[in-house]
Amino acid sequence: MTDCNVTFLPHDRTITVPEGENLLRAALEAGVHINASCGGEGVCGKCRILVEAGEVTEGISEKLDREDLEKGYRLACLSRVHEDVTVRIPVETGVDSSVMHMQVTPRRTAVIQHPDFESLKEEGVFISPVEKIYLELPPPEPQNNMPDVTRLVEYLKLEAGEHKLELTLPVIRKLPKILRDNDFKLTLTLVRPVRDKGKTIIIDLQGGDITDENYALALDIGTTTIYGQLIDLSTGECLGEAGDFNGQISYGEDVITRLMYAEKPGGLEKLQEVVVATINGVLEKILKQSSVDRENIATITFSGNTTMTQLLLLVDPSNIRRAPYVPTATMYPPFRASLIGIEINDHALALVFPQVSSFVGGDIVAGVMGSGMYLNEELTLFLDIGTNAELVVGNKDWLACTACSAGPAFEGGGIEFGMRAAKGAIEDFSLDPLTFEPMIFTIGDVRPKGICGSGLITMTAVMFEMGVINNRGKFNLELGTERIRKRNNVWEYVLAWQENTQIDRDIALTEPDIDNLIRAKGAIYSGCLTLLEEVGLTMDMVEHIILAGGFGSYIDLEKAMTVGLLPEIDPDCVTFIGNGSLMGARMSSLTNKIRQDVVEVTKRMTNFELSETPSYMDNYVAAMFLPHTEIEKFPKLKERMAARKKQMELLDSSR
Amino acid sequence: MTDCNVTFLPHDRTITVPEGENLLRAALEAGVHINASCGGEGVCGKCRILVEAGEVTEGISEKLDREDLEKGYRLACLSRVHEDVTVRIPVETGVDSSVMHMQVTPRRTAVIQHPDFESLKEEGVFISPVEKIYLELPPPEPQNNMPDVTRLVEYLKLEAGEHKLELTLPVIRKLPKILRDNDFKLTLTLVRPVRDKGKTIIIDLQGGDITDENYALALDIGTTTIYGQLIDLSTGECLGEAGDFNGQISYGEDVITRLMYAEKPGGLEKLQEVVVATINGVLEKILKQSSVDRENIATITFSGNTTMTQLLLLVDPSNIRRAPYVPTATMYPPFRASLIGIEINDHALALVFPQVSSFVGGDIVAGVMGSGMYLNEELTLFLDIGTNAELVVGNKDWLACTACSAGPAFEGGGIEFGMRAAKGAIEDFSLDPLTFEPMIFTIGDVRPKGICGSGLITMTAVMFEMGVINNRGKFNLELGTERIRKRNNVWEYVLAWQENTQIDRDIALTEPDIDNLIRAKGAIYSGCLTLLEEVGLTMDMVEHIILAGGFGSYIDLEKAMTVGLLPEIDPDCVTFIGNGSLMGARMSSLTNKIRQDVVEVTKRMTNFELSETPSYMDNYVAAMFLPHTEIEKFPKLKERMAARKKQMELLDSSR
After folding, report:
1. pLDDT of A111 strictly over 70
2. Among 3.60.140.10, 3.10.20.30, 3.40.30.10, 3.60.21.10, what is the CATH number of A1-90?
3. Is A387 a residue whose pLDDT tops 80?
4. Hey, are the CB atoms on B172 and A325 less than 8 Å from each other?
């Protein structure tokens, strides 16, 4: 694949994109606005551009007549770049080119950090909780007729320096036949103790040498989705990966409705059965991708929030949602995965990430462990944003955590045209600074169906920075665009007219939508601030931010700072870890060090209940503005806003 | 109950018996012979005696006419003593009274030693592997909302000094409801670690204070019978006791046939199912006797031989019966009893006595532990005699053991009229020194059906000492009694004529029967001798003998020495422990010290295979006489035999 240069005129901005890139996305990357509101389907015909040098492919639509085509007009959203091209964006005559530079800023998302398995190997901590060892035993003779188990144990001591061994009854039952059918050559599956002084447990036996067939399953049990990875314990490699919606969704969209369902007669059992069915489905998919025998998966590591964990383990979670919010347990003993219905080798060991509290669960602990935050020197803020946001601050010496309810806005809930981050969701956005016409991007480049959480943040940030809304999220009614209108007594901005959507209505962003976003981001920002204050720190002392979770991976960093969801920080100091829960589960499958450390780390994670912290409400009220009551907390934004104001004044006076 | 004195004439021997005692049994106790061969049913009419002073009750039969009755004649076997009486036994005129003293010697069986639970309490080792603790926890509050499990564990540390705790998943599942339904007051069931540094496991929770309802089940899994005792863990008391034939008997009478059955398809599973069904039946009986709730039985201790243990645990035992006789394991981890089908509380912990080898099993280890042999200073010989005999020698510093096949003679097998020690079995016996007429005693005082093992030993000993058989077990054909006869080419002694039996034949002891006994006792004696020789000792160094097992409890010590089954030793140095396996299981339920010691003791028990020891066969051949080739090894018997010979010569010369 070769790269191509695309030059946008009159901005005179050039960007290098991979061959085949869509021209509209190239404009977004370049920070160039092109009106576009049909998501890239060529329906609205607004994204007309003139190809002045080179050629693009496709880009032709019935929205362009023969004359247009001959002149070189194309629709940007349908055009693909295969060579260096220069394209001109038709703009209103007389627009000062300085305005161009106030437009779209390129989306800023950091690359997702993957765990560094090589360094684990180098550090010598590449020791899975479950290991396989091959042994050749001398067969019994009259002068050496010790029992089979004794023979095994003595030989393990002698040859492998293994002491403190324990066997389970099923293993004892298998031993005589395995030994005699395989000429006393066999592979043992050993569970390593968490502590050095603990016992190693032999959980399985196989005839012959099968040491290189040793696999683990890492499973993130999310409220919405369940993801699994099959890990080769010899190489650390991921051999298969799959996900699915948590089947429990049919019994409640979020944690609270699930908790309520679990209290109905048979509800807990039903929810457990359903999540296990999802897990078995995910496992099935993963096995199909790999050529791995189910029998050789020796361990599963689960991580999930406190409610998901209790539902999975059939532990009544009803006290989680009632003050004083008491979970049943934070640590669970290892157990055989088959006992809870996982369709796997009977002996396979299930490990569960410990929880901190009712609302800071194993998914967060897994993220903290997997990201290595607990080993860092710098003051780090770990954020997992969803309907509930979990926050952890600290470093290698201390950790504090809390959770706050952000409401469903980031998942599209409570937003008039809100939807999950799925095909047809508007995920990116820019505005023409003069006409206030939009450029929208949807997931899957199809006509829009609605707005997802990251789109909502971007729209709000762009509109705020361009003066379309004020710091309380109210529309500026003096812009003279028909897109801002009042409907059902509510002010809104029309993102896409009905004919350009997949639905039978205009898609708009309303003032109540923006209000919901402000509440959501206010809750999280004030949560972070309150947590820091509780440990005597301030927001500007944060040296590193780790963003975990699906939402966190799609967020546009600068926009998130503009709306005041995140504090202003150098984007290089932000790490995106994606699914931190799954990452922690995978790490834990590969190195027993995680299991060794996690107990201590979990105990170190001091939990704060925001409802018990009076300053939280004050901080919340102060955060109910864009970006905040005190814009001084966001100095770069303040600077940009001042610069824009000056430019607009210049523009006005030059007209 | 008052005691009565019974004086027998012309012997002028007086014995004190409890009121209601049978006169024939009183004679046996007094060492007085009365002809009797119908087992006490008054059928043979041989046991006529004359009541000279006092009165007996009953004792009347159609075998006595009015004249006899008026003179004071009664049948001894039907008479009961309620006051002091003097009775005369009609003997042939002219018999020298010195002959009287050569007759029956009182049966010598030591009292069965019971474990000394009081001293266990005093020693402070009265700590069961499973304990109950009552706790009152403070309920959660906003400022103290730790998870339920954490609350429990922290409070246990604080209030009960309990550290290193582990909870199982089922217990975690029960916890929230138990706490809230019972005002945070609950009783915990704790499994104590074997080693001081181990973890205590919480296996059950109950609401309120149930600490005084803590029970254990001790189970002896014998090849023939299964015995159980329900133990109150607060007092050490046995609250119920029951036994039943092992249901596996239908699939094979002895260990070897069971092992063969287990190799058939589905055989192992069938045998396991059947023994568990027997156990559940025994448990049911015991629960009916006591008012104990099945839910409050927290632990079961099993002890059985190696084959019985493997069959119970569904561990393929097929290598036990094939050289080099390899059992699968000697130690088994604790497990939940319900897992093998025991109908008991799901959490109840099963503990299994470890084995030493294929033929020295957990029943023997339990006996060694229960009898305290492993703590003794003296050189002790522990013997459990059955179809197989297990032998242990040693003291607190060392232990050596072996097993030998005695054949089925002691259980009545291979004996023409042999039977198990059940109702109708001839268990005791004496001979008139001049007429050689028998006095027989049956179990249950009914007409005889056959001969049990202890009866066989007594008969052989009496006949040998009275010169009815020689030291090779051959009958003296010159005694002039019609009871010694040849039938089907085999010499035999008729114990009871057909009309006095429950069967349609005369019951007799044959030369092949005696030969079988000699082989059986020879195997055991030479086993003991060989084992001692292997550790550099001789038979006369043995300071203490412990006899375990049902057979061992009924054995007449002096008779056993006379036939050469046991070495000659002061009877006071012999302890009968009865069912040592059950005793060990009970002890182990009461004091964790047994569990602590048993691993080390089992390892200390050096196993010798007699088949690998060349001197065993020589010792066996030398032991194939009554009592032995070298009568010098039995000096007291030699002295008695010499004295008798002299008396008989005197008697002959006086006639």
Report:
1. no
2. 3.10.20.30
3. no
4. no
Residue B7 confidence (pLDDT) above 90: no
Contact between chains at A176 and B316 (C-beta distance less than 8 A): yes
Cβ of residue A475 closer than 8 Å to a chain B Cβ: no
Architecture of the A215-352 domain: 2-Layer Sandwich (3.30)
Q: In the predicted model, is pLDDT for residue A107 greater than 90?
A: no
List CB contacts (< 8 A) between B327 and chain A.
147-148
A313–B609 CB contact, under 8 Å: no
Query: Which of A148, A318, A328 is opposite residue B175, by nearest beta carbon?
Result: A328
DSSP A36: B
Question: So where are chain B's domains?
Answer: 3-90, 129-207, 215-352, 368-408+518-637, 409-510
Task: Tell me the Cα Rg of chain A.
Answer: 29
Kindly give the pairing relationship between strand B79-81 and strand B56-58: antiparallel
pLDDT of B93 higher than 70:
no
What is the spatial distance between Cα B390 and Cα B548, in angstroms, rounded to a whole number? 10
The CATH code that applies to domain B3-90 is 3.10.20.30
Q: What is the 3-state secondary structure (H, E, C) of A520-547?
A: HHHHHHHHHHHHHHHCCCCHHHCCEEEE
pLDDT of the residue at A578: 87
pLDDT-derived band at A406 (thresholds 50, 70, 90) equals confident
Q: What does the radius of gyration of chain B's CA atoms come to, in whole angstroms? A: 29
At A222 the pLDDT is 93
| Cross-strand partners of A311 | none
pLDDT score for A103: 47
pTM score: 0.84
**Out of A148, A177, A324, whose CB is closest to B329?**
A148
Contact A329 B609 (CB under 8 A): no
**First CA to last CA distance, chain B:** 46
Structure tokens at B516: 């079988």
Q: Which CATH number fits domain B368-408+518-637: 3.30.420.40, 3.40.50.620, 3.40.50.12160, 3.40.50.2000?
A: 3.30.420.40
For the domain spanning B129-207, the CATH number is 3.10.20.880
Nearest to B546 by CA among B223, B221, B112: B112
Q: How confident is the model at residue A93 (pLDDT cuts 50, 70, 90)?
A: very low
Question: In angstroms, rounded to a whole number, what is the distance separating the alpha carbons of residues A390 and A285?
Answer: 30
Q: Quote the pLDDT of residue B66.
A: 81
Give me the DSSP letters along B583-626. HHHHHHHH-HHHHHHHHHHHHHEEE--GGG-THHHHHHHHTSSS
B119 to A214, A463, B123, B156, B236: CA distances (angstroms): 54, 87, 6, 29, 11
pLDDT at residue B174 greater than cutoff 90: yes
Confidence class for position A112, pLDDT limits 50, 70, 90? low
Which of B3-17, B93-107, B189-203, B391-405 is the least confident region? B93-107
User: Per the omega criterion (within 30 degrees of 0), is the bond before A10 cis?
Assistant: yes
Whole-number percent of chain B with pLDDT over 90: 61
Per-residue pLDDT reduced to its tens digit, A257-299 = 999 999 999 999 999 999 999 999 999 999 999 989 999 999 9
B141/A324 touch (CB, cutoff 8 Å), yes or no: yes
- CA-nearest residue to A180 within chain B is B319
Residue B103 has pLDDT above 60, yes or no: no
Among all residues of chain A, which has the CA nearest to that of B319? Answer: A176
Instruction: Assess contact for A473 and A515: CB atoms under 8 A.
Output: yes
Same fold flag, B3-90 and B215-352: no
**CB-based contacts of B445, cutoff 8 Å, min separation 6:** B22, B39, B40, B41, B77
Closest CA to A413 of A285, A551, A587, A544: A551
